[in-house]
Structure formats: C-alpha cells, structure tokens
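Troubleshooting entry. Yesterday's outputs looked truncated, so today I'm pasting the complete records for two proteins to confirm everything comes through intact. If either block looks cut off, that's the bug. Protein one:
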Amino acid sequence: MPHLMSQAPLPKEDGARFFRKGMTLPLLYLSPHFAVIAKPAGMAVYPTKNTSHKTVEEYLQPQKRGGPWLVHRLDQDTAGCLLIARRKTALIAAQNLFAGIKNTKNLSKIYWAILEDVLDPSLGDSGEITVPLYKIRKKQKWFMQACPDVNALPSSLRKEILPAKTKWKKRGEHNGKTWIELELLTGRTHQARVHCQFLGAAILGDTLYSQSTAAASQPLCLLARSLFLQLPSSEKIEASMPPPDFMTTEIQKIHPDFISSSVPFLGKDPFFP
C-alpha cells in the first residue's frame, strides 16, 4: 500500500461508517456527499467472475437509503483517486460533470505514467491527442484501438467510434524511459493507455498494449494522480495521491531527488497552464 496523506483535515467521521466492519481503504477526501479513496494497484472496483480478491465496491458499507456509489471507475491495475458518491443527488451531479467532453474549470483528472520508451523528439515536450477510440472484440477478449482515420473503417464500425481527447506533457526521460503527465479531457475506457501507445510508447507494465515481452514482469505504471471537481452545490473536491512504491522507484530513476511522500497535495494539480 502506498504512503498516503490527506491534503485537508477530514471530518470527525473518519470513515469508520463508510467501510464495512474490519475493512478500510485510505481516504483522501470525505464529506457528507462525497469521498475520494486511494485505490491500490491490483484492486478491481467491481466484482466479476474473474475477481479473486475483495473489490472496492465490497469494501463500502451499504446504506439504508442506497449507496454509496462509484462515480467512475479505474482499471484494476491502475492506482489512484477514485470518487465515491454518498447521496443519489451527488452521484447525478458528479456524473453530469464526467459525461462527454470535460470543462476543465469544473473537472480535472490528472494521470502520471512511466512509458517503456522515449518519445520521438519531433513530438516536442507537450501536446494534445484528439484521436478517437473504438473497441475491438476477439473471441473472449477485447481491447481499445486508436483510430486516426475514421473514414478508413468499415461503416459497421464507424458508429462505435468514441471521441477522445488527452493533453500530455513530459516530466522527464532517462535510460530509455519517459515520465509523462496526462490530463484526460474525456473518460474513455483505456484512454490513457491507448493514447500513450499512439504517441509511440506504451505504459511500462501494460501487458495489453505493449509489444514488449518484459511487460508482464512489471506492474502497470499508471496513476490517477489527482482529481478536482467544482460541483453546482458549491462543494469543491480536491484530492491527490502519491505514486505506489514500484512507480516511485521508476520515477527516481528519471528524477533521483523525487520523494513521493514529500509531493505536495495540490488538489487540481494544474500541470497544464
């Protein structure tokens, strides 16, 4: 479990009634309407026939009035900030912000990733990816695919195209790896992973989108670093999470002076001016 700190004092209700008895996850934010938990890498958010360990949903204490509800999801292998709604009205308000193209004044999702290769110098140090995605199904498996030319797809697949938009900026590179920061302006499945692949370097440890045979020996180096929401009710949610230890190790190879526990909790974490 990564070392965690909260950027703001939590209410007197410290989460004991939020989780099932004897079960807890680190809380980054807690109010009567919302909670942000620090989801560990390797933990699924929902139970499926393939999950062998407790999921985030199974940690949450069901309430008589319904809920709590997961506002969004993170891949099982992705660590990071996960938003939970404690009221149905709060769920609807937050999901309205998450829907469609994002207004970054009211919602911001920042990710950190370590890429398994350096980027082509012609890309520069920052940019924006607007390549849409679509799902490919093969027998019992599926994955997302970037589609730079929609017209090249069969007409049967064009209706499945999902607009996707990601801002990115390099934080550093060393010894064949890149530390990159991503701002997801849409919330498509595997968006960060596929857009990194589209840049020319898959995320370190990504067994689905990497061509490297070494990917399976390394945990996925992807972190939902910070979350910012400005709700219509005037509630402002700001939460940040340091990287897990295995990812900190990779970051320190690029920036030796990086110490995860000293990373300031900046809430929105506005890396992009």
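Protein two, checking that the full record survives here as well:
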Amino acid sequence: MRVTTQAELDDRYGRTKRSTTRLWIGIAAIIGLVAVVGIGWTVVQKSRANVGFDDLGFEVVDSGHVDVHYRVTIPTDDEAVCVIEALDESFAKVGWEIVDVPESDSLSSEHSTTVRTVDTATTGHVVSCFVR
C-alpha cells in the first residue's frame, strides 16, 4: 500500500496556499483612512487657529443692555463669527449675541456690540470667535 503525501492530498482536495492579498488590501485601506482623517483634522485646526480676540471692556447701559468692546484678529479677506455673552453678579448668563465680523483690509479690527439682557449684567465678554 502506498502512502500519500500532504502535497498529493492538497492537490486532490483543493487545498491551496493561503493568500495574503486580502490582508494587504485591508492594511492599505486602514492606512488610507488614517491619512484622510489626519489631513482633515489638520485643515480644521488651522482654520480655527487663525482667529484671535481680545476683550477691551464693557459698559452697562441699563438693566436690559450691556455694550461689549473687543478686538478681533483674522486674516485679511476672511470673515468671522463671534459669540458675546453677558453675565450677572453670580456669573449666570443673562444675555448673549452672535455677531458677524466682516472682512477687513487690516489684520485686527475693533468692534462694539450691544447685548440685550434679561437682568442687569455686571460683565460682558467674548466667548469665542471662528472663521466663517
């Protein structure tokens, strides 16, 4: 009686060498996805980092209004949006405003915004600004 070898059994029953093609396609897809996410994250962070703001002061007009003075620094030919809020003596939010900052020929521009309040404000300030 003749003993069959492993190679003969593989030929007879169709066993083939394991292919690693699918593995390499999966690895390439994961690397591609990580690269796309990394590039997207970088673009978003750079666009957010281009806006700066400084609070210059505030003036309580009456029990229903406060004027907030601030400086916004954005690249020329860009527009920004700023969020302004007014707080009372217990630091509760009593008013807020979303303000469009138009493009300017200079890097920095000063602005003043009147915020309507539901109670007397004791302070007003810029919360955040971002490129439109």
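Both blocks look complete. Sanity check on protein two: The first helix runs from residue 6 to 13.
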